Amino acid sequence: MPVLPPASGAWREGDPVGDRRFLTLPEPLPLESGVALPDVTVAYESWGTFTGDNAVLVLHALTGDSHVVGPAGLGHPTPGWWAGIIGPGLTIDTDRWFVVAPNVLGGCQGTTGPASPAPDGRPWGSRFPRISVRDQVALEARFADLLGIDAWACVLGGSMGGMRAVEWAVSYPDRVQRLLLLACCAAASADQIAWASPQLAAIREDPNWCGGDYHDRGRGLGPHIGLGVARRIAHATYRTAEELDTRFGRRPQPGEDPYDATAPGRFAVESYLDHHAEKLVHRFDAASYVALTAAMNGHDVSRGRGTMAEALGRVTARTVVAGSTTDRLYPLSQQEELAELIPGAGPVERIESPYGHDAFLIETRRLAEILSTLTG
Predict the structure, then answer these.
(1) In a 10 Å sphere around its CB, with 0-12 CB exposed, 13-18 middle and 19+ buried, how is residue 168 labelled?
(2) Rounded-to-integer distance, Cα 285 and Cα 294, Å
(3) Residue 375: per-residue pLDDT
(4) Active-site annotation holds for 299
(5) Which pLDDT belongs to residue 3?
(6) Can 159 be counted among the known catalytic residues?
(7) Predicted TM-score (pTM) of this structure
(8) In this structure, what DSSP letter does residue 176 have?
(9) Going by fewer Cβ within 10 Å, which terminus of the chain is more open, N or C?
(10) What Å distances lie between residue 166 and 9, 82, 135, 266, 340, CA to CA?
(11) Measuring CA to CA, how many Å separate 323 from each of 161, 277, 299, 364, 368?
């Protein structure tokens, strides 16, 4: 019998810490909304030894976290999402570089977010303020200060992490020496916002959403149905039609018959999406998904900074921009805009892959080639 998912898959105080470390700001964090968010904690992982000028900042995507490399285990429900890239003797060689990966503001794996306790001890839930990508980067800048890092030797990220990376380079150009932007954009497009809209609606219309105040409910009583639907929609955009057709075609799921009039079964591709939805609802928080998706929708590095060319013209970092040729969610044209407008970025590094948007997580050999131009 399937195990009912928790009301929230967030990491909560008292859960196994795993490889996480924590820093708490000594003062509230001012947000763009005008709210000062108190008691903000950042969960992070790090590898290597800091020598003063060798710090590398790795920024994760929407449902990622600080566990970039390492096995699954207590405190970490999944293995690291970028295995083969970071470690001794690898492309980002931790014998040379001090690598830091924080969980994002609004996330659910140890950094302050909707599932975290507010000052009254109850989860923030619906009271968690709206946040922006700039707020997330402002927190990461405070976090860097606490670590004693004046400037990053390299900042890199893909998808939502790429949004934060470019915001870092525009907001704090003197603190970013090298920059790698993967499968991301300078501003969220109408198409990306449109794909996000039904995902947000699925969560908010779930009867167990409870306006965002569900975190203390029992197993099976959170908005896991809506979160699962959101994941199905998102995952389909992360891959390509060609890959799905090649892998699954119109084959039924083994043991099931989609044409059974009395108890219709699933096609194999439906089972695949169900599997990814089931995994996510056990390890993620629906309110974090909403908060982070809303922040991504609001991403526009030129907001309040003149034209896009003027905004990206602030970047002084040595920059490489890369994207997947088959990405239908963050098409290569968005990376071409970044490369064209960031001074000295050069042409886009193309990742030829059948995996669409997820190529930045999967094509480690090509990623190693691209990264070596910055870290070699």
Answers:
(1) buried
(2) 14
(3) 82
(4) no
(5) 82
(6) yes
(7) 0.97
(8) B
(9) N
(10) 29, 20, 13, 41, 14
(11) 13, 26, 18, 13, 14
Tens of pLDDT, residue by residue over 278-332, are 999 999 999 999 999 999 999 999 999 999 999 999 999 999 999 999 999 999 9
- β-pairing, 55-59 with 98-102? parallel
> Is 282 a known active-site residue?
no
User: At 175, which amino acid appears?
Assistant: R
Catalytic-role residue among 8, 46, 116, 159? 159
The first and second tokens of residue 236, run together, are 């389909």
Q: What phi-psi label fits residue 267: left (phi over 0), alpha (psi between -120 and 50 degrees) or beta?
A: beta
Query: Do residues 183 and 357 make contact, with C-beta atoms less than 8 angstroms apart?
Result: yes
Round to whole Å and give the CA distance between 323 and 363: 11
Residues 188 and 184: their CA atoms lie apart, in Å, by 9
Choosing from 135, 300, 327, 358, which is the catalytic residue? Answer: 327
End-to-end CA distance of the chain: 51
Which segments in the chain show pLDDT lower than 50?
A: none
